[in-house]
Design goal:
The protein has 250 residues and is an alpha/beta fold. It folds into two domains: 71 residues, no CATH class; 117 residues, HUPs (Rossmann fold), CATH 3.40.50.620. It contains nine helices and nine strands. The longest helix has 26 residues.
Length: 250
């Protein structure tokens, strides 16, 4: 509910269609599956009806539709995201100290690892507030497809936010012209942060000092200096992030 409310407030000034998805999956003996499935589906439908009714009353200008799908949550969400029909997947994540290793098996982590769609992850309890800056942590990878940054561009335009490009580096002022070309007309600022060891901690420290309200990362198969944009570190950053995280895919 928190993630849904955040998304609506974030995009409320644009024509908006929100597809609210819930999945269910019975983990029991095959003999009972049909009856269990019916109970689960009916319960999900009741919850969905109440939610849609509540949100329609609060946000009459938003077009809500709902989907209730039987199946593994990661597989269903990934399939929908990869269909190309949606601009963003919005998910919530609880996050809890000491459970970092468990996160790799979580729904949000699984979706980020498998989808090609932009994923916006909203930490539990994070209340929407208007913001004027998005920190975009960039590596040395040369993006071959300008559409990679399209969701970031759209987010910046919708929120009327500046993009603060943060390059966490162990070299002096590398050439970022190719990486910045798709958003060059938005006049992003560029900051270099030297962090040879704990990249995630360096990022969180920078975000805190800048009082930034959103962090954007691009997930690539080849790492950002072998540290940030490999799968495992990106997922840990998702888990640790105290602010909403926009994850794009190259």
């Amino acid at each position: 509910m928190n993630a849904l409310d955040y998304a609506i407030r974030l995009f409320k000034d644009d024509p908006l269609e929100v597809v609210v998805l819930t999945t269910y999956e019975a983990s029991t003996n095959a003999f009972y599956v049909k009856s269990i499935d019916r109970v689960l589906e009916e319960g999900a439908q009741d919850d969905m009806d109440r939610m849609i009714k509540k949100m329609t009353k609060e946000y009459p200008g938003v077009n809500f539709t709902s989907k209730i799908v039987k199946g593994n949550a990661v597989s269903v969400i990934t399939s929908m995201g990869n269909s190309g029909e949606y601009d963003y997947i919005v998910m919530g994540t609880k996050g809890a100290s000491g459970l970092k290793k468990v996160f790799i098996g979580s729904v949000a982590g699984g979706v980020i690892a498998r989808t090609t769609a932009a994923v916006l992850v909203v930490p539990t309890g994070f209340t929407f507030q208007s913001f004027d800056k998005i920190v975009y942590a960039v590596g040395s990878t040369n993006y071959t497809d300008d559409t990679v940054l399209s969701p970031l561009r759209k987010m910046a335009e919708i929120c009327k936010a500046k993009i603060d490009v943060l390059h966490v580096t162990d070299e002096e002022a590398p050439d970022l012209s190719r990486q910045l070309a798709p958003i060059e007309d938005l006049s992003p600022s560029v900051t270099y942060l030297t962090s040879e060891d704990n990249v995630s901690e360096g990022l969180k420290d920078y975000m805190s000092k800048q009082n930034a309200a959103m962090l954007c990362l691009v997930r690539t198969k080849k790492g950002f200096l072998g540290k940030i944009f490999n799968e495992s570190v990106t997922l840990r950053q998702t888990f640790d992030s105290a602010v909403p995280l926009l994850v794009l895919h190259n």
